[in-house]
Specification:
By secondary structure, the protein is an alpha+beta fold. The chain is 49% helix and 20% strand. The chain has an 8-stranded mixed β-sheet, with helices on both faces. Strands 6-7-8 form a 3-stranded antiparallel β-sheet, covered by helices on one side.
């Protein structure tokens, strides 16, 4: 570890001692006490790691001195054995401290809103969008998450023009946040008589689910239109004006919700999606400067960024950000092998952030 990082560790130890003394006294109350308690609990695992590392380093120095100065052959051999064991442990202890120092994404613990839209490729793109949506639905089931469909806009051929779902459970956004972007499919469509491979695409957006306290929406900034819901091909599926279109006038964001028969429920779901989209816009603005500084980041989360190709004739899935290819497309599409891609992406992101800590 570099000198600047060691100084940072010393600062954390001093801050931890200050908080411990303050919490043990009687000077803190109410919000100040709660804030200090939270900071203290967040620092505790970091300090434990620093203490373990520095104890091991002190022991290493003592054993090195003993091995070099001792004239007792048996004692010298024992010290050298312990040195070898410590030499193997030290990198893991350093890694533990570095990982604990990584900045946390405040949204990692949130639920998510998933949006999948057909891109270029007509009916084939809509069919692929439907398969992607079902892939995430199956993946959510495998992880024990709750997957609630908010809205589906079907094509009538089994495809989806767009589909939206709310996914709730443990670490949902943390695991899905790098799925945002363009997903490309290469295969022979069933309607292709000549057997030529076509390329089409769908876009995926994973938004951290926002709470009322995160985004306050002024009703005066909304235009709310109601109309009759329609099914694939434009046929009416409802005899009442239950579908809702909400336009957020300042940003131009539009959310349409028609999955429920109740206008009230459709409005509530539309507001949920709108709130998450607005929060996502704020998040992107907030993180843009940090993202620009981190050249080695896994991805920007930009929906226009091509992130993955699903090649059915070759049975492979390739994630272009980390140059990972898996020849198990059926298991990926069933959600079973999606963790292999997600884990690799998270590991790459962690490595990039560790490198930033080590050089910063």
């Amino acid at each position: 570890m570099g000198a600047s990082l060691e100084e940072h560790l010393d600062q954390l130890l001093r801050r931890y001692a200050e908080l411990r003394d303050a919490l043990a006294g009687t000077g803190l109350a109410g919000a100040d006490f709660a804030k200090s308690s939270k900071e203290y609990s967040e620092l505790t695992p970091i300090v434990d790691g620093i203490d373990a590392l520095r104890r091991a380093r002190d022991e290493f120095a003592s054993l090195t001195d003993l091995a070099q100065s001792s004239e007792d052959a048996e004692l010298k051999a024992l010290a050298e054995d312990e040195l070898r064991a410590l030499r193997e442990r030290l990198p893991a202890l350093e890694q533990r401290v570095k990982l604990a120092l990584l900045p946390k994404d405040a949204d990692d613990g949130r639920n998510a809103v998933l949006e999948v839209r057909a891109g270029t490729g007509g009916d084939e793109a809509a069919l692929f969008a439907a398969e992607l949506f079902r892939m995430y639905q199956k993946y959510a089931a495998l992880r024990g998450w709750r997957f609630e469909i908010l809205d589906l806009s079907e094509t009538g051929l089994g495809g989806f023009k767009e589909a939206t779902a709310s996914i709730s459970g443990r670490d949902v956004f943390a695991r899905l946040k790098f799925e945002s972007g363009v997903h490309r499919v290469q295969r022979v469509p069933e309607t292709e008589a000549a057997g030529r491979i076509h390329t089409s695409a769908a876009t995926v957006a994973v938004l951290p689910e926002a709470e009322d306290v995160d985004i306050r929406i002024d009703e005066r900034e909304l235009r709310i239109d109601v109309f009759r819901a329609s099914g694939p091909g434009g046929q009416s599926v409802n005899t009442t004006d239950s579908a809702v279109r909400i336009t957020h006038i300042p940003t131009g964001l539009v959310v349409i919700q028609q999955d429920e028969k109740s206008q009230h429920k459709n409005k509530a779901k539309a507001l949920k999606v709108l709130r998450s989209r607005l929060y996502d816009m704020e998040r992107r603005t907030r993180d843009s400067a940090r993202a620009a500084e981190r050249k080695s980041q896994v991805g920007t989360g930009d929906r226009s960024e091509r992130i993955r190709t699903y090649n059915f004739p070759q049975g492979r899935v390739t994630d272009h950000r980390i140059n990972l290819t898996l020849y198990k497309i059926e298991k990926v599409m069933s959600g079973e092998a999606l963790d292999e891609i997600i884990d690799a992406i998270l590991a790459e992101d962690q490595a990039a952030r560790l490198a930033a800590v080590e050089t910063g």
